[in-house]
Fold:
Amino acid sequence: MNHGKLRQQIKLGLVTGFLALFGWNWMPDQTLAAQEEPPTEEAQAADDEIPPTDRDELLKWLKAGKYKAKFVSEKKVHPSDGPHGGNVLTYYNPILVEDLKDKKTLFRTGASMVKELYLSGTEKAVGYSVMIKTKEKGTKAKGKFWLFYETFDGTNQNPFYGKGVPLCVNCHTIGVDFLRSTFRPEN
Ligand code: HEC
Structure:
């Protein structure tokens, strides 16, 4: 055996030894971490379908665009008929979509809408309006079974937030269980 080959074999031995010592321990940890990370299927489904009611969680959820996977949206950004920051695009969650298809006029707990506010543009949502039904009750309770949220600038510095916010309720009370949009998902 010549010296070059011997050196190569020593080098190979060192690398294998290193991998055996450190690589071996390191690999299973990585695999374990990867297995622990994804949430359960139920948690994931709920997370996609109903917005969180906590204000800060809600804003994070909106910014991450979590509603986009399962909510049904209007076809196009359009000017709002209400005081909702110029151009808007409204999304309904699967519970609301099902209720509308069933021609319900009182929606179930969890029925939700997200409205993207584009202000004067049409490309980028700057703010959000959200409504979440927190209890399946009638329309006579001054809207306190709906959680209302609105931010015009995408921050939580001065948002509207709360159950039955009077300003929102005043205008939404003439809707179908507070729903004002005329958009209905196709059957
Ligand atoms: C002056 C009337 C008016 C007020 C006040 C108002 N809205 Fe609306 N809102 C509307 C109208 C009209 C629509 C229908 C879609 C559109 O044209 O923007 C609507 C739509 C929405 C939607 C989409 C679901 C739906 O009902 O169509 C959300 C969410 C929403 N508003 C949230 C709010 C929140 C939160 C507040 C209070 C901070 C509020 N709105 C105050 C008139 C109003």
